[in-house]
Design brief:
By secondary structure, this protein is of the alpha+beta class. It has 15 helices and 15 strands. It has 4 domains: about 120 residues, Beta Polymerase, domain 2 (2-Layer Sandwich), CATH 3.30.460.10; about 130 residues, Poly(a)-polymerase, middle domain (Orthogonal Bundle); about 90 residues, Alpha-Beta Plaits (2-Layer Sandwich), CATH 3.30.70; about 35 residues, Alpha-Beta Plaits (2-Layer Sandwich), CATH 3.30.70. The longest helix is centred in the last third of the chain and has 21 residues. The protein is globular, with a radius of gyration of 26 Å.
Length: about 400
């Protein structure tokens, strides 16, 4: 398909770019000196599935299993001590096992301490399994499939459904790779996805062939819309972080693309708040910190505003939020009507006399309807924008974002 060839030209790194990035990564890795540990490249760099826009790399420091299996909780401290000998500025980030971030000339390196294992069941931490993912993917793909994976990743990025972080709940890089491997190509994947039902089961290695996966796998791991059995860890769902919302977006976009193929499905659009007419827009300056933590706090703040607006009786027609790392975030709400000046507050059943008395003490004007007591109260604020302004003053918001600007 000509459209996909055109997209690939835009998203695939040129050979000279690959050589430069490869040199940059190898030079960086050569400066990490840790006794009894191997320094290996992870992520999309290890699998050759990275996109032209990539400006980061995952580096794993793999400690010998026999020597360090009893010191798993000390690996971050050991690695930090060694990194400080070679690098001036190191940022330690909290994770299931703490890891490190070093930024050099706009390129981000994440250095993750792990224990070297051959099988997933030997893992002492979830991150120990990551190199096994790379080994599996590399075994399954050739250059053509690597390009198909690039198309899938860019498709997800452009439609804002890429990433397994808690504030995105989308398709992880590993999941994109497994999906393309399973369907043997991007176009075949889209055709299958357009017919997916909720609770789609994908089991590349056929671990659960002839079995009911919903009985075999831990129930807590089968809540997602896709159950993607991890080919290197059969009791893990590689799609566990995927939300139904992002799943539905992918299905919808797959159908739209198949109906009318276009490069626009792969183009990342910068959010422009000026294009939103009749919306309440809140511009947010996020706090500094780890991306997924900052993103999670933004999402909690957005959900707080949405919930409080609904609780107060405002009818939200449309809402959403947008955030690109390193930029300001935006929340937006479309609310056409003001709320009534009188607010109706639900009280207890009239059969619970003690509660009724307490309710009457709190509220001056009350009435009963269908054996339930209600109160009427005058609202101080009836306009949605004014109410948002008040909500932004709450501690819940101030604790999670640095600055807010109501537009």
């Amino acid at each position: 398909m000509d459209v996909l060839k055109e997209v690939l030209k835009d998203v695939k790194p040129k050979e000279e770019d690959e050589i430069l990035i490869d040199k940059k990564i190898k030079d960086f890795m050569s400066r990490i000196k840790v006794k009894d540990a191997k320094i290996i490249l992870g992520g999309s760099g290890a699998k050759s599935t990275w996109l032209k826009t990539a400006n980061d790399a995952d580096i794993f420091v793999q400690f010998n299993y026999n020597q360090y299996k009893d010191k798993s909780d000390k690996l971050s401290d050991i690695l930090e001590k060694q990194l400080k000998k070679s690098f001036k500025k190191i940022n330690r980030l909290h994770g299931s096992r703490d890891y490190f971030q070093i930024i050099e000339k706009g390129f981000t390196f994440e250095i993750i301490p792990i224990i070297e294992i051959k099988k997933a069941n030997k893992a002492l931490n979830i991150t120990d399994v990551s190199p096994l993912h790379a080994i599996f993917v590399k075994k399954c793909i050739n250059k053509k499939l690597a390009d198909e994976i690039r198309l899938m990743k860019q498709f997800c990025k452009a439609n804002k459904i890429y990433g397994a972080e808690s504030y995105i709940n989308g398709f992880s890089g590993y999941m994109c790779e497994l999906l393309v491997i399973n369907y043997n190509g991007f176009l075949k994947l889209l055709k299958a996805a357009s017919k997916w039902k909720d609770k789609e089961v994908i089991d590349i290695k056929k671990f659960y062939k002839g079995k009911n996966i919903f009985l075999e796998m831990n129930k807590s791991k089968t809540y997602s819309p896709i159950i993607m059995v991890d080919p290197v860890q059969k009791d893990r769902n590689a799609a566990a972080a995927l939300s139904f919302e992002k799943f539905d977006i992918f299905r919808k976009k797959a159908k739209e693309f198949l109906k009318k193929p276009s490069t626009k499905f792969f183009q990342e659009k910068e959010f422009d708040p000026t294009k939103l007419k009749d919306y309440i827009i809140v511009e947010i300056k996020p706090i500094k910190g780890k991306q997924d933590v900052v993103g999670a706090k933004l999402l909690k703040t957005f959900n707080f505003l949405k919930k409080e607006l609904s609780k107060e009786g405002f009818k939200i027609q449309k809402q959403g939020w947008d955030w690109d790392k390193g930029k300001k975030a935006h929340f937006y709400f479309k609310i056409i009507k003001d709320v009534d000046k009188l607010k109706i507050i639900e009280g207890p059943s009239t059969t619970i006399k003690e509660h009724v008395l307490n309710f009457k003490k709190k509220h001056k004007t009350t009435f009963t309807k269908n054996k339930q007591i209600f109160a009427k109260e005058k609202r101080k604020i009836t306009k949605p924008k004014d109410y948002v302004k008040e909500l932004l003053k709450k501690d819940y918001v101030k604790e999670r974002v640095k600055e807010t600007n109501l537009k």
